[in-house]
Amino acid sequence: MRDPLSVLTESFTSFLFGKVETTRSPVRTSTGQAQAVYLPTAAPGLGDSGVIIGREVYSGKGYVYDPFQLYGQQLPAPHWLVLGESGNGKSALEKTYVLRQLRFRDRQVVVLDAQGEDGVGEWNLIAQELGITPIRLDPRAALDDGIRLNPLDPSITTTGQLALLRTIIEVAMGHGLDERAGFALKVAHAYVNETVGDRQPVLTDIVDQLRHPKPESAAAMNVDIDDVRAWGLDVALVLDRLVDGDLRGMFDGPTTIGIDLDAPLIVFDLSHIDRNSIAMPILMAIVGVWLEHTWIRPDRKKRIFLVEEAWHIINSPFVAQLFQRLLKFGRRLGLSFVAVVHHLSDVVDGAAAREAAAILKMASTRTIYAQKADEARATGRVLGLPRWAVEIIPTLTPGIAVWDVNGNVQVVKHLVTEAERPLVYTDRAMTESALHEDVRAAEQEAEERAAFIERQQRRLDSSESTVA
Fold it and tell me: Record's superkingdom (predicted)?
């Protein structure tokens, strides 16, 4: 029984100063059990300025990301790599990200759309919603006055034109140009630029000069005219594919008038091109250089260059070198390059491993969706992910990804609004299965958060220690 004097003293003290906190006996427990009382706290986010992506799985906090807001303080480079197997939400993330970025007035986006259904690219609905006409590169349509991009467009510098021609040829041949072939190309290009003045020079002019070089071209190097012709023969045969082969019509004429490079969204629809053919990296090289010299300029706009099937770029040494230069150049002008790749092994084990490593190093933001365990471990080694992140990648469900923003690693649930849904899920937005999937997603979300916390508890239990 308590002392009456102590009771009286406590009552008087409580009246004057408020209730006094009671003293509790110490408790001995394990770290795993203590989590039920002192719940784990999430790492700090990236701030509240930029584009909302979704929410962090562990804490439930909103997740906001914007490379232009973070660049210089938390990000050494504004470039972004998105990885993951098909069907896990990469496409939905890309589309909502672009739609939300375009709400800012100083944003502009170019998309290389390499996938599609029903004869149009994946981004067709979004382009229509914004009143944009996609630039559809299609050999069949090009023959009927379709879209053309001229590698010799006067808006591209002479140096840029020659670099582009070399890249096209090297990609198609699978090896670099030797000195003699490079000389023949250089001579033909210089002659065309000097003599064609009443119109845009076109590839046909280059092919003609390679096949029929002028005597003065040979005299300049004190070589025989037949030698110059022989040196340029292979180059002429490669360029002939763009003039009279399976890619004819898209690049062998003046640039189509009316392409609006000031539109907020520019979509290059490559869905009619065989994704596994050599044509795809050639197309990406031409578009990349053409954009470098006609689109990116110092006007204080923030630009996003998003490339679907980006392994076509990173896996070719010559195209990778071209884009590596573009990334370095564009960083000074506010360019964020977004590369979408299914498997990192497609890149790091390819022919352009060194160039791929350089591009990956520039990507300070990495988003990884579900992968198989072996692929996840390989990805973790290359990207330097923490062990806990590597372990959960194979368990991720669609819409959830590991985000690594220059070492700030979070597990993020991407959220799609009702207004965005019909534009984002282009192949199944209005189907009954989509409605069922939404219901399942809502039910799974609570289960996923509980499962993540449970796995975290089990890991901590394995290294259990006592605390007082």
Answer: Bacteria
